[in-house]
């Protein structure tokens, strides 16, 4: 029932008290954003707001596990977001 | 871990503000994509409040074509942003790409078709927007 905010994918250190704290803590980290449509976006989280609107950098779009697109900057409308998860993503591509 | 913070960007909507008057790529529901110019400020600047007498002088009704369309009232008020928190947007010189996938009954082959059309001026309802991005300039 606790689906407020985003859930941390990999349990890491740090005591996260509220969803708002979580949202503040994951800025600048590589994240995986899954949309309701099933499309995956991996990138570095620039910022997000309470509606779960997301701004990301170096974004890669995965459809059915296949890399489809790359975006330098991407803004995702919050209503489409299913979850935001942190990931230990290895930055394969150079800037 | 790159903590790249832009000075004036606090929320994602601010990032879109940086793309005003730029060409952007918009992904919509129903497998649609748009590429167009996000309408931002026009050249008209806010001149500030003028006294009534000055405004009348500037009207210059005698000059041909002096009638200003009502839209100018909006433009003179404030910086016009052609987007809002719902992601309703106004785009200019838009190309819409519609993607359909057909599966052949016999061969089970996926035929991907794209239909394109260009629209000079478009209002996009924010409801259908999934993603907004500036188009890739460098790989």
- Average predicted confidence as pLDDT of chain B: 74
Radius of gyration of chain A: 13 Å
Distance between the termini of chain B: 21 Å
Number of strands of chain A: 5
Residue ranges of chain B: pLDDT <50 for 5 or more in a row? 1-8
What is the distance, rounded to the nearest whole angstrom, between the alpha carbons of the first and last residues of chain A? 39 Å
pLDDT below 50 for ≥5 consecutive residues: which ranges of chain A? 1-11
**Overall geometric form of chain A:** globular
What is the approximate shape of chain B?
elongated
Oligomer: heterodimer
Polypeptide structure, described:
In chain A, about 5% of the residues lie in helices and about 45% in strands. Chain A has one helix spanning about 20-25; strands at about 30-35, 40-50, 55-65, 65-75, 80-85. The N and C termini of chain A lie far apart (about 40 Å). Chain B is of the alpha+beta class and about 140 residues long. Helices cover about 15% and strands about 35% of the residues of chain B. Chain B has helices spanning about 10-15, 50-60, 70-75, and strands at about 25-30, 30-40, 90-105, 110-125, 130-135. Chain B has a five-stranded antiparallel sheet, with no helix packed on it. Residues about 1-10 of chain B have low confidence and may be disordered. Classes of the chains: A mainly beta (about 100), B alpha+beta (about 140). At the A-B interface, strand 2, strand 3 and strand 4 of A face helix 1 and strand 5 of B. Strand 4 (about 65-75) of chain A pairs antiparallel with strand 5 of chain B.
Summary tags:
heterodimer, A: 95 residues, mainly beta, 5-stranded antiparallel sheet, 5 strands, B: 139 residues, alpha+beta, disordered N terminus
């Amino acid at each position: 029932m606790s689906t407020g905010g985003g859930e941390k994918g990999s349990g890491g250190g740090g005591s996260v008290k509220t969803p708002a704290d979580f949202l503040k803590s994951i800025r600048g980290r590589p994240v995986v954003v899954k949309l309701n449509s099933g499309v995956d976006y991996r990138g570095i989280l620039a910022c997000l707001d309470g509606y779960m609107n997301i701004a990301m950098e170096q974004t890669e779009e995965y459809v059915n596990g296949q890399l489809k697109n790359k975006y330098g900057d991407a803004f995702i409308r919050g209503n489409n977001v299913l979850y935001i998860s942190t990931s230990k993503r290895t930055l394969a591509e150079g800037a | 871990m790159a903590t790249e913070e832009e000075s004036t960007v606090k929320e994602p909507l601010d990032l879109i503000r940086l793309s005003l008057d730029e060409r952007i790529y918009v992904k919509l529901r129903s497998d649609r994509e748009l590429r167009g110019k996000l309408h931002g400020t026009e050249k008209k600047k806010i001149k500030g409040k003028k006294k009534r007498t000055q405004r009348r002088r500037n009207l210059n009704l005698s000059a041909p074509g002096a009638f200003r369309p009502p839209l100018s009232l909006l433009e003179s008020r404030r910086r016009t942003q052609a987007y809002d928190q719902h992601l309703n947007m106004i785009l200019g010189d838009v190309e819409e790409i519609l993607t359909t996938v057909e599966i052949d009954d016999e061969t089970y082959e996926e035929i991907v078709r794209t239909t394109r059309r260009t629209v000079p001026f478009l209002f996009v309802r924010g409801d259908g927007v999934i993603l907004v991005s500036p188009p890739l300039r460098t790989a």
